[in-house]
Request: fold
Amino acid sequence: MNSRIKQRAETRQKILEAARSCFNQFGFEKASTRAIAAQAGVAEGTIFSHFPSKEELVVASLGEHLAEAIERGLHTMEPDWCFVDKLMHIASYRFAQIAFQPGLWQVILQQVVFTPRKGAVQDMMQGSGLLCAVTALIEDAQLDGELNPDIPVNVIRKTIMALFLFTIHQHISLQSFDCEDMCATLRELLEAQVAGLWICEPVLTA
Reply:
């Protein structure tokens, strides 16, 4: 790798790590780019040479943080586990990150999930590899006969992501960041979803 490219990549990583630390400690508003630059050991202008805005820095820093959890989960997963167990394995790595740095997810909810910036959540989840990972698990489960193949993959994926975000929102609202508690909440919701809620299919009105 070209030394200049390598140095730029290393600087970018220092900025992302400093941003996560500052956002977790101070929140979005109070974590100034000046403080982030100081912790990263770079000039404030260097931040904006990598990220056009503070909002973009949030999406990038949190997206890479999420990517680390996804990668660890995928590489330590047993192929013969059931669909729910595979999802929970990935989620457990993310919940462990949240338990360690809960302030980061408060920033996510405030500045990403409920942000006016269109596509912020999609960008973060797509860039982290989460959407690809969940999509692949769903497709494999449908091929194995574990999930209904007639339900579109994107519908199942949206449902799972909604349960994931609900779990995080609930525990942050309660200021409860115990990884095992978060996993128990999500597993309960996933198992109910996979098992199905109907005893028999009702006649639906328009």
